[in-house]
Structure formats: C-alpha cells, structure tokens
Amino acid sequence: REAEDAGEILSVRRMDFFRFPDCQLDVQAVNVADSLSKLIFQEQPEIIYLPHENDDHPDHQASARILRNAISIADCCAPTALSYEVWTPLVDYYHVENVTTMMSRKIRAIRCHKSQLAQLPYDRAATGINLYRGATVGGCRFAEIFQHVGLIG
Asked: What are the Cα distances from residue 44, in Å, to 21, 78, 80?
C-alpha cells in the first residue's frame, strides 16, 4: 500500500509487484528474471531505472544481473538502463538531472513508506544526497545522477 500511495503522488499509471522476499532476490534470480522478462516483452520499455549494482543492499546488487537475464529471456530490443543512488553514492555518472522542481513531490512520496522510515530517515538521506549532487555536479539546488548500465554480457 505504501508504494501505491507513493505512486499516486508521482503519477505512476501502473505498478506490478512480483512478491519475492526482501533480501532474497539473488537466491530467486532465475524466477525473478523470468517474471520480469514477461513484463519487459509485454511493455517494450524504452528506459528502465534501477538501483546501481554497487549499492550496499543485496537486492540492489542483484538487480542489474537480473535485468540482463530478463532482457536475454525476453528476446526483444534492449532498453536503455540507468541506475541511481539509494544507499551508496555512485563513483561516476552518465547523466545529471535537475530535480529541484520535483523535490517536494519526491519527499512526499518517500514519506509514504512509513515502515521504511521507521528504520532509517530516507527522506533526510534523499534530501542530503540530492543537495550534494546539485551543488557538486548539477549547478542547481537538487540533482540526481544516473549511471548507464550495460545490458549485454
């Protein structure tokens, strides 16, 4: 429900939940890739955003490997894949996006995840990293950076 509430704030039209256990995506990688490949084949996305593979969270670490496998299974045109920061800052980046005008919506959406905020103040963390990226590479108040994810290999 928290993700759906956040999606409403961000005007997300559709969400699909595969319901694999948290912190177990690596163990379930084949099944996750199979489920994801069906969605990729059906939707034919142009861009896919995912956490970067050097993030400290095990599910985030597994996401690019799972996506590569899903693209291979789907056997369709590979979309552009861009990874972003969650727990661990990126060392390098491919693209900088000024998110200043969207920052209040982003924080409202993050705050929908009350169960996660009870563990860690993600709203403060996101504000901090986006302020830092705006100051250091964005030339603006708030920015996000993205890294290109190679899908072949």
From this structure: 26, 9, 11
Strand partners, 146: 84, 95
120-139 average pLDDT score? 96
- Report whether 147 contacts 52 (CB < 8 A): yes
* DSSP H helices in the chain: 2-9, 29-43, 58-74, 103-110, 114-117, 122-133
Give the whole-angstrom CA distance, residue 9 versus residue 2: 11
* Angle, alpha carbons 43-106-127 (nearest 5°): 130
CB atoms within 10 A of CB 104: 11
Query: 151, 153, 150, 147: which is closest to 55 by C-alpha?
Result: 147
Residue type, 136: T
Q: What is the pLDDT of residues 4-30, one digit of tens each?
A: 999 999 999 999 999 999 899 999 999
CA distance 65 to 74: 14
Provide the whole-model pTM.
0.89
